[in-house]
Amino acid sequence: MSVADIKKNMQAKMEQSINAFKNNLTKIRTGRANPAILDTVLVDYYGSMVPLSQVANVSAIDARTLSVQPWEKPMGAKIEKAIRESDLGLNPASMGDLIRVPMPPMSEERRKEMTKIVRHEGENAKIAIRNLRRDANEAVKKLVKDKDISEDDQKRSEAEVQKITDKEIAAIDQLVVSKEQDIMAV
Question: Is the pLDDT at 44 greater than 80, yes or no?
Answer without folding.
Answer: yes
